[in-house]
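dumping this here so i dont lose it
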């Protein structure tokens, strides 16, 4: 009996030690932010909807069929103008099982980036609400995400841009895009030409106003409709500085070019209003196709006046993040727009161009043609999102002054060794 008690005590003690060791290890295993490296990821999650009915939003497609089998919901689905959307609304069974499958496949992708450590900052598009974003972050506890932010915007389906990060959040706000307001605030081509000519006669080319969008450039805007807002999140870098993230999801190719021009203009305006020395980058799904960019120069001219575009400085052998089967066309729908100071050596934090990459290391990301595999109704063995994410790294390098200091220090230590 005594031996049995002794044995029981030893087993219990070992269990206690084992349990405390594992919980200690678990704590220790949480991924921490590095002092001099921030890993960024932008990813269109393709409809991360929860399974509940969000009031005032057209989210009926993403409900379990058990709820949808009522005249109320069937009537709602019948209000969809397109036959395809009507059918999807009626047929899709967005159950808890499918929702969990969607999240686990997204986690499979996200957890593979940054050598399996997950991104430090994830900008996620097509998220229905903060609850869905929290469910996603909660499914990756090892990544130690401190910031999970999404502010409800006016989009009719209810999709928004969210930010998840290991960095703590200092502030956040949503910029609502009003197409009409921005359109009429723009100058006419005539006014812009006059301003340019005035500068030219002064022969002061350095003070020439940069290319500015003219009202004529957005003359295709015929109606004002509620679109996704731009999510501004101020994060705290390891050195205490602020990093402003502008998460964007521009109108799709179903809308004409002017709508995307307006959101690019809005991003430039927001950037100008931020503190002068603020570190800022924009990221998201810009919905600009390769064909449209070649013709209308949205990245090449308009965005390039204020930003450095990720696929122009890196990712040289990448085809794109989105594939249009009908047009057989790859496009960079997903991009990072870096402020110039992040690429020209003027700031301690710099983008590493070699780190810019399209990420597709999860088997779920492919369809049978080898392009991004849609999740759709979640019934197929692969498929997670119709976009492939884009990743990039910010690296902190000592500025010129600090380099001088370290040179001095190494000199002294060399002298000492001699
Ligand atoms: Ca919902
Ligand atoms: Ca929403």
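and the seq i came up w/
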């Amino acid at each position: 009996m005594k031996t049995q008690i002794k044995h029981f005590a030893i087993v219990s003690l070992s269990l206690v030690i084992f349990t405390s060791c594992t919980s200690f290890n678990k704590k220790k295993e949480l991924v921490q932010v590095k002092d001099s490296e921030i890993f960024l990821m932008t990813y269109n999650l393709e409809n991360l909807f929860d399974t509940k009915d969000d009031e005032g939003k057209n989210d009926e497609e993403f409900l379990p069929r058990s709820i949808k089998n009522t005249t109320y919901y069937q009537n709602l689905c019948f209000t969809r103008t397109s036959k395809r959307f009507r059918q999807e609304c009626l047929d899709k069974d967005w159950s808890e099982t499918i929702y969990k499958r969607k999240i686990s496949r997204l986690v499979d992708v996200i957890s593979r980036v940054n050598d399996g450590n997950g991104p430090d900052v994830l900008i996620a598009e097509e998220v229905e609400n903060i609850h869905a974003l929290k469910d996603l972050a909660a499914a990756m506890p090892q990544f130690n995400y401190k910031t999970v932010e999404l502010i409800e915007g006016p989009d009719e389906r209810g999709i928004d841009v969210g930010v998840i990060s290991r960095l703590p959040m200092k502030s956040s706000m949503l910029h609502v895009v009003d197409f009409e307001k921005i359109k009429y605030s723009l100058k006419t081509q005539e006014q812009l030409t006059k301003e340019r000519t005035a500068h030219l006669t002064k022969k002061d080319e350095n003070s020439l106003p940069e290319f500015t969008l003219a009202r004529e450039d957005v003359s295709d805007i015929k109606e004002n409709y509620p679109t996704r807002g731009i999510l501004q999140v101020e994060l705290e870098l390891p050195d205490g500085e602020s990093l402003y993230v502008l998460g964007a999801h521009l109108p799709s190719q179903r809308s004409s070019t002017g709508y995307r021009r307006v959101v690019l203009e809005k991003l430039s305006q927001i950037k100008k209003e931020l503190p002068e020395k603020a570190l800022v980058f924009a990221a998201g799904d810009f919905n600009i196709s390769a064909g449209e960019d070649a013709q209308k120069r949205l990245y090449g001219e308009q965005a390039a006046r204020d930003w450095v575009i990720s696929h122009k400085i890196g990712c040289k052998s990448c085809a794109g993040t989105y594939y249009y089967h009908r047009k057989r066309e790859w496009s960079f729908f997903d991009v990072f727009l870096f402020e110039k100071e992040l690429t020209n050596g003027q700031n301690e934090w710099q983008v590493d161009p070699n780190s810019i990459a399209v990420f597709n290391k999860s088997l779920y990301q492919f369809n049978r043609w080898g392009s991004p595999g849609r999740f759709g109704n979640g019934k197929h063995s692969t498929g997670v999102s119709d976009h492939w994410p884009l990743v990039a790294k910010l690296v902190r390098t000592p500025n010129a002054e600090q380099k001088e200091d370290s040179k001095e220090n190494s000199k002294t230590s060399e002298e000492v060794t001699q």
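The chain has a mean pLDDT of 89.
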